Amino acid sequence: MKQGDALPVSPRGENWIADMARAVTALGVETSDHATLSRIAALLGMEKAAPARPPAGDERLQRALSSDATVSPTAEPSKPASQPSRGPAELPEEPLQVLRPVSAQTLGSKRGWSEPPLAEQQRSKPEPLPHQPLLPPTSESATLHLLLSRVVREGPVDVAALLDTVCRGDVLSQLPREPVRTLRFGVQVLVDLGVGMQPFHRDQAELVRRVNALAGEHSCDIKYFSESPLQRSGAAAGWTWKAYEPPPPGARVLVLSDFGAHTGGATPQLETEWRQTAQLIRRAACRPLALIPSPPELWPPWLQRLMPVLSWDRQTTTARVHSALS
Q1: Is the pLDDT of residue 146 over 70?
Q2: What is the 3-state secondary structure (H, E, C) of the chain?
Q3: Is the per-residue pLDDT at 111 higher than 60?
Q4: Between 33 and 214, whose confidence is greater?
């Protein structure tokens, strides 16, 4: 800068000499520190950097600087410092959080956050339908009681019979009693496991369970066979079966079989074996009775001559049982 040039002006419109002098005085900077003086000038926004030593004849700057420090006569003028470019303040870079889209279904649901996911919920399995018996459900117990029981005169005293005997002048050896049905003689159930009865295995098992509940397990004798019980039958596995043995005297024998009706008809050999089986039962003072799951037109013609037969279906009522057993 030559003598007579216009002094640079700060952005505030004041003389740069006064600003420079106040900054140097406040910071206590030595006049020989040309680099610091250049930075101060740049920070003050001067258009031109202030020289380290004022030119000769500039008494205002010399007086301002000599008030706090002495200017060295041998100091070289400092080079003008370039004004650093100041951009907007830079914010520290932070990792951006990836936002996940929210579906409309999630927004509309009112499910609580504590509810487990649907994949973890145990879906309730549908329960199997209850078994429907072949006999009428409303009268099944009464029908089974009629089928399995035996009529004996062990009830209350028959007053009418007693008066009739006395009026005739007959000698009483024992008091006459009314007839009642009882299961105390026991029950034997013959269950056919042949091919023709395979569709009715569940019905057979359910009926056996009901008979045990009605007569008592201690009074029930369950025997399994195939086609005919005469040669092989038993209560356990097939390899333990042996020749048929009738129950104790007075027991009811209930047969659950198709007698060959579902396998093309009964053969002569099957007829012979069942005839011998019925004879063994009657010789033991027992009464056989058959339940067959087929209509009467499919029954073997010889079957009704051996034992009473009833259809094992919803048409079998207590009235039909009375009629078949009378």
Answers
A1: yes
A2: CCCCCCCCECCCCCEHHHHHHHHHHHHCCCCCCHHHHHHHHHHCCCCCCCCCCCCCCCHHHHHHHHCCCCCCCCCCCCCCCCCCCCCCCCCCCCCCCCCCCCCHHHHHCCCCCCCCCHHHCCCCCCCCCCCCCCCCHHHHHHHHHHHHCEEECCCCECHHHHHHHHHHCCCCCCCCECCEEECCCCEEEEEECCHHHHHHHHHHHHHHHHHHHHHCHHHEEEEEEECECCCCEECCCHHHCECCCCCCCCCEEEEECCCCCCCCCCCHHHHHHHHHHHHHHHHCCCEEEEEECCCHHHCCCCHHHCCCEEECCCCCCHHHHHHHHC
A3: no
A4: 214
Is the predicted pLDDT of residue 232 greater than 50, yes or no?
A: yes
**Are 178 and 153 contacting, i.e. CB atoms less than 8 angstroms apart?**
yes
Identify the weakest region by mean pLDDT among 3-12, 147-156, 168-177, 244-253: 3-12
Residue span(s) of the chain under CATH 3.40.50 come to 137-325
Architecture of domain 137-325: 3-Layer(aba) Sandwich (3.40)
Taking only the tens place, the pLDDT of each residue in 46-83 is 645 444 455 554 555 556 555 544 444 444 445 444 55
